[in-house]
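Bumping with the actual sequence this time:
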Amino acid sequence: MRFVLALCCALVAVAQSVMACTAFQLKCLDNALIYCRTMEFGMRMDSDLLIIPRGTEFTATAPDAKLGMRWTAKLGLVGMNQSFGPMIVSDGMNEKGLVVGCLLLPGFSQYEKPDPARANATLAAWEVPDYLLSTCASVKEARQALSKVIVAEQKVPGYDNFSLPLHFYICDTDGDCLIVEYVAGKRHEYDNPLGVLTNAPSFDWHLSNLMNYVNLSSLNISQMKLGNWTIDNFNQGSGLLGLPGDPTPQSRFVRAALYSHSASIPNTALEGVRMGFHILNTFDIFEGLIKKKAKDNSLIQKSDATQWVVVHDRTNLKTYVRNYDSLEIQMVDLKKIDFQAQGPRHIGLRKDFAVRDITTQDKLLSIGPMHESAHSLSLQGVIHRNPEVEAHN
């Protein structure tokens, strides 16, 4: 079968929304590489996990409603899709551990000039993840692949005034991390020493902006002297005073850089996944936190929200997902997927909020030898000293 990568009409809603995504990576002591990202969106995406097998045939989109490049998938992949673009992968990993995620870059993204003579080598921006994940095994191969195609400046089919401004986070099992942006009609590639990406402005601006926060550290400041006056600090986290806490891309980039590089290094891949979710929790945007006004000046209550977060264990080829509705972490093991099977398919993610009732799992508390009976306890002597807690306090 042949699949044409085209966005459905509902994508026009993106024009009135903002994508506040955050991406970072972690490395574990067992050398496992963990990629983590959030997906914020101003409309319900109803995403599931898309499985694209080897041999899937693609036809891309060129400007003026023309057919673009055609290719056949050499590698199987798993990625997050959306109800308005079931074959569009916004973030995914292939069977070689290559990860590609697209994040919004509004106000800065401008793709390459279309060349009618090279329609057979032309892609739309939203088709880049599918193309790279289905044909490339490494960042090096992704660089080469992008150098041979045109990611053309074009409007979403059916909407003359709407483009989709994206930039791309690309990483592999060797630890290479690449950011690709199309600005002023040219492709810009940045090796990413931090492994962090958010949204606008462009990546190089964010790196320079970190100079404004060189004073921040995870190390507590115990006191400060001003002349003969000593200011004592008795609280935790003083080294991070001044850390920007708002949800703007600029502030999220700073936090993602500091959090991902300050976190305790996980021993194993699974511990790295757990750490990744803990850090992702700090970027969670709930419905109603970010509001906006419509053209008629009425207040829109629901704007950006964290639709889902995804963690890719690039070393062990496992993808973990948690969405807004369920909060349950769901996992797929790419090594167990039959990428030879014909035809794309999807795994429906659980979207109901289920709570585990542990009421009847109570057990008799064992508190060691005591003079009092089990029915008449005194707290005296029951509280055990904890040196670590005392030192902390």
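The tokens above came from a reply further down the thread. Helices lie at 128-135, 139-147, 203-209, 249-262, 269-281, 387-392.
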